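Quick one: structure tokens for this chain, please?
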Amino acid sequence: AGFDKHITIFSPDGRLYQVEYAFKAAKSAGLTSIAVRGNDCVVLCIEKKVPDRMIVPESVTHLFTVAENIGACMTGLLPDARALVTRMRNEASEYRFKNGIQCPVNILANRTGDLAQVYTQQAFMRPYGVITMLAGIDDEFGPQLYKIDPAGMFQGFKACAAGVKEQEATNYLEKQWKKVNGNLNREQAIEMAIECLQNVMAQEYKSNDIEVGIVTTDHHALRLLSQQEIEERLNAIAAKD
């Protein structure tokens, strides 16, 4: 039938199959990512899978700096992710050039969602097969976390997940968030993200199996944690158990 091949045509039950397939494409990379908002930080955590032994591990990343105050975690097809990051960087720098201030996270999330939405209604385009998480520090509202999907929906979150085990991870985060009532310092936020990933994937990670990035109120740019820092947090989690 034409409606599942064609991006701009609704099916009889009101669905856009090509857009739904874009969500599946984002999960087809086989990765799960977690983001947690703390009192003075936002933590992004994602699995790191190097597909080939000959690849330099440092060249494989899903965490990107978008602007001096915004970091992104891209879950899904890496080529699409890089293209979208480049577009977001352009949008953020254009905003700064026009307005003289850094682009706030909510404005960039809104703009990125608008772009994604346009790709669901034009036949010569296809949606990006990535789910984007944007983390940043807002001068007015403090730490901010947004998630944008291939359909163009963007929402602010206290904590969120994307990828293969999205639902299980979301359930876990809800329970943990309730326990601490959203009161998390930096170490706790990092540990909650890593614990969540370990829990839903049912495996113990080594420091080179995951990537962790953090934006904080005293360092607005995205900073990737070194393997030593990740190891310290993993040991702290193991000690808890």
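The mean pLDDT is 93.
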